[in-house]
Amino acid sequence: MQEVLTVVTQIGVLTFVVAGMAGLGLSLTPAQILAPLRDVRLVIGILVANFVVVPLVAVLAARGLPMDEAAGTAVILLGCCAGAPFLPTLAKLAHGDAALAVGTMVLQMVVTVGFAPVVVPLAVEGAEVSTWDIAQSLLLFMLLPLAVGLLVRARYADAAASVVGGFNHASTTGLAVGVVSGLLVTWREVLGSVGSWIFIGTAIVIVAGLAAGWLASAGRPAGDRTVLGLGGAQRNISAALVIAASLGGDVVVLTLVAAIVLPIVLIVTAGEIGKRSAKTAA
User: Fold this and answer.
1) For the domain that residue 228 is a member of, what is the CATH number?
2) What is the pTM of this model?
3) Residue 248 included in any domain
4) What is the pLDDT of residues 167-202, one digit of tens each?
5) Burial of 246 by CB count in 10 Å (0-12 exposed, 13-18 middle, 19+ buried)?
6) For the segment 66-109, what is each residue's pLDDT rounded down to a tens digit?
7) Smaller CB count within 10 Å for the chain: N or C?
C-alpha cells in the first residue's frame, strides 16, 4: 500500500507541476512574464532576499540553535534552494500578480541551478550537488511545459483560451491528490519528527523568506510585495531533496517532513492574505 501511495503522490505532484506550468503559458505572454524583471532594483532585491538573506538565516539557525546535524542540514538545504512551481498557485490564492509570480519563479530556479552546487558543499560537509540533477527537473517538468504553453498561446490564442481551464483544473486536482497522498505516506515520519528542531527550523526559513521578500520589494504595490514574500518563503523542495538524497539517512527524512509542512503552512497563509485582500477590495 505504501508503494502505491508513493506512486500516487509522485503522479499528483507531477500533474500539478506540468499542467500548472502549461496552464500559465496558455494564459500569459513572454512580455508579461519578463516585464517585472526589467526592473533592475526589483531583480537585485529578489536575488539578495533569496540567495543571501534566507540562506544566511538558515545557516545561522542551524549553527546557533541546538539542532542535531540532520535537522540543521535539512534547514540549510531549504535555505539554499529557491524557486518552486508552487509560487504561482500561492500568488493566485493571495490574489497576486500571476506574471510577477512566474517571472520571479523562473529567475529563482535558474539562479538556484548555479548557486546550490557552489554554496551547499561549503555549508554542509559531505554534500554532493550535481548541477544537472537539479537542472533536469527544471527544464523537463517546468520550463518546457511553460514554453509550449506560451508558444501555443502566441500561435493559437483562441484554442489556448478554450483549454487553459482544463489545465488549471488538472493542476489543482494534482496538488490535492499529491498533498493528501503525501501526508498518508509520510505521517509516520512527521509524527516521529515531533520534538525535533525541523519544525522550528522550517518556521524560521518561512518567516525569513516572507520578511526578506517583502522588504526587498519596498515601494511596489502591496500585492507585488505579497507575491515576493511568498516567493522567498516557498523554497525549492525538489532541489533540496535531490541534494538530501546524496547525504541519506535522517537528512532525507527531515527534508521530506519539511517538504510536507512548508507548502501546507503557505497555502493557509496565502489563503488568509487572499481573504483579507478581497475584504479590503469590497
Assistant:
1) 1.20.1530.20
2) 0.87
3) yes
4) 989 988 988 888 888 778 777 777 777 767 899 999
5) middle
6) 998 989 999 999 999 998 888 999 999 999 999 999 999 999 99
7) C
**Any domain includes 253:** yes
Question: How many domains does the chain fold into?
Answer: 1
Residue 126: which domain range?
2-275
In a domain, 280, yes or no: no
Q: How confident is the model at residue 58, as a pLDDT?
A: 96
